[in-house]
Amino acid sequence: MRHNTSGRKFGKTASHRMAMFKNMAASLIEHGRIKTTLHKAKDLRSIADRLVTWGKTDTVFSRRKVFDFIRNKNAVQKLFKEIAPSFENRQGGYTRIYQLGHRAGDAAKMAFIEFLHDDLLSAKVEGKVKEETAKDKKTKAKASSKKSEKKAVEKKAVDKKAPAKIKKTALKKPVVRKTQARGDK
């Protein structure tokens, strides 16, 4: 009997199970809704709620704590800029699970897990969450392309500074020595 134990094992090792939930949490934050089995959704709910609670306090420590878990910069930014501010007045229960029925292949119960949209929409109307416009996206793209151009120019400058001797020695072919046959002396 499994008394006083929480969570399910899903037939996976602890590290595999944790990696699965980290990926699912990142996907949930990025897309807002994911389709998975009912039991995985129920276990993911507590992880997602914990991440949103960390996201409510926008400090360097909390950002590092969340990034340490999900390892996805875009998801961390979205969590702290869009999702967490919309749940500012809510004390918990940031996700909702919809049951979908059974999967055709193995008859597993399927479900959608998503963040509550009512709070997200009301936060956008009140101005707590700033939506990225197309102009903002273009300026970000230009800035990132300028950075990549700068890195390419710096790399070329470093290559030109390299001594010519090193380049020539790298191009020399290795010397192959012939060995004598056993009978020859």
What order do the helices and strands come in, and which of them pair?
Blueprint (H helix, E strand, L loop, with lengths): L13 H18 L1 E5 H19 L3 H11 L2 H14 L8 E8 L6 E7 L1 H10 L7 H28 L2 H8 L14
Antiparallel strand pairs: 1-3, 2-3
Helix pairs in contact: 1-2, 1-4, 2-4, 3-4, 4-5
Describe this structure in words.
- This protein is mainly alpha-helical and 185 residues long.
- The chain has 7 helices and 3 strands.
- It has helices spanning 14-31, 38-56, 60-70, 73-86, 117-126, 134-161, 164-171, and strands spanning 33-37, 95-102, 109-115.
- Strands 1-3-2 form a 3-stranded antiparallel beta sheet.
- A hairpin with a 6-residue loop joins strand 2 (95-102) and strand 3.
Fraction of residues in helix = 55-70%
The unreliable regions are: none
Number of helices: 7
The major beta sheet can be summarized as: 3 strands, antiparallel
Number of strands: 3
Task: Walk across the major sheet and give the strand order.
Answer: 1-3-2
Gyration radius from CA atoms, angstroms? 27 Å
The helix-strand sequence is HEHHHEEHHH
- The first-to-last residue Cα distance is 80 Å
The average pLDDT is: 84
The global form is flat
Strand content: 5-15%
Structural class: mainly alpha
Summarize the model shown.
This protein has 7 helices and 3 strands.
Question: What labels describe this entry?
Answer:
mainly alpha; flat; 3 strands; 185 residues; 3-stranded antiparallel sheet
